[in-house]
Amino acid sequence: MLSVKSLFQEILDDDESFRLFCSIAASGESQGGWENGRIAALAPPSARDLAPKISRHGADEDKHGRIFNALLKKRGLEPVQVPADTDYTMLLERHGIGLAHEKLKGDQALTVQDVVTYLAHSRVTEQRASEQMDLLRKHFADHPDLGRAVRMISNDEDNHLAYCHEELLRFAATGHGRAIQRTLRECALAEIRIYRDVSLAVMAHMGRLLDWPRAKSATLAAGIHAVYAYERLGGWRRMVSLRMPERRDALGGPATAAPEFA
Q1: Quick count: other Cβ atoms within 10 Å of Cβ 249?
Q2: Per-residue pLDDT tens for 139-163?
Q3: 3-state SS of the chain?
Q4: CA distance 71 to 77
Q5: pLDDT > 60? residue 262
Q6: What's the confidence (pLDDT) of residue 3?
Q7: Per-chain mean pLDDT for the chain
């Protein structure tokens, strides 16, 4: 029977599909780490108090990238080049979601609106990350190889989402509410399309590696399209609501160290 757990288990059990899975994850996390590091460095004077939290966000993402690479190393595997159609982070940037990399590569300070845009983009993408890691934690929290990594990354993603809620509400209280809601809506509607396309691409690559029958690939593609239909009809709204989180000041301390994988 095809289920989320059986699908992930199949991917994890095969070296080549596991290589691709971890390589995609590591690349996206490392890219997020670089982006947050540059945003922290370029934060405007009026938002310098936020810079340590942005740096912590970036340090967490870097840590996640190292964890996925360590999981590969533990199995004696090397990362593979990430196919362009599976590169979620770069596709978001290419479609104008978040801050342009050309801006982040420069030396000019960002504006407050840039910081608001970054937080709105992060609120949307961290919703996705939190949900994905919660799903993995549900099925693999006790896995002998993946359990510690899944639990740590899932907790971090929940912290990132809480931080985005809290900081966006703080900016909304100082007059940025309209811009925040507009940016959140634009990001969410673009993200659900890109997530659909990336999901289809990843499943196509996995299907070739694992030699899935055509019927299985068609069923998975239909499921991805069904998720997109739900999100397009209204599911996207969960990505744009704001509420004060139970975890306050979630990124107020130093990043935790990555676990060792012997």
Answers
A1: 12
A2: 999 988 889 999 999 999 999 999 9
A3: CCCHHHHHHHHHHCHHHHHHHHHHHHHHHHHHHHHHHHHHHCCCHHHHHHHHHHHHHHHHHHHHHHHHHHHHHHCCCCCCCCCHHHCHHHHHHHCCCCCCHHHHCCCCCCCHHHHHHHHHHHHHHHHHHHHHHHHHHHHHCCCCCCHHHHHHHHHHHHHHHHHHHHHHHHHHHHHHHHHHHHHHHHHHHHHHHHHHHHHHHHHHHHHHHHCCCHHHHHHHHHHHHHHHHHHHHCHHHHHCCCCCCCCCCCCCCCCCCCCCCC
A4: 9
A5: no
A6: 85
A7: 94
Burial 183-203 (b: 16+ CB within 10 A, else e): bbbbbbbbbbebbbbbbbbbb
Dump pLDDT digits (tens) for 119-138.
999 999 999 999 999 999 99
| pLDDT over 60 (residue 103) | yes
In whole angstroms, give the CA distance from residue 219 to residue 225.
10
The rounded distance, in Å, linking the Cα atoms of 54 and 62 is 12
The C-alpha angle 220, 83, 164, rounded to 5 degrees, equals: 80
Residue 114 has pLDDT above 70, yes or no: yes
Amino acid at 155: N
What's the pLDDT at 1? 63
pTM reported for the whole predicted model: 0.94
Return the sign of the alpha-carbon dihedral for residues 19, 23, 24, 26. positive
Cβ atoms of 46 and 122 closer than 8 Å: no
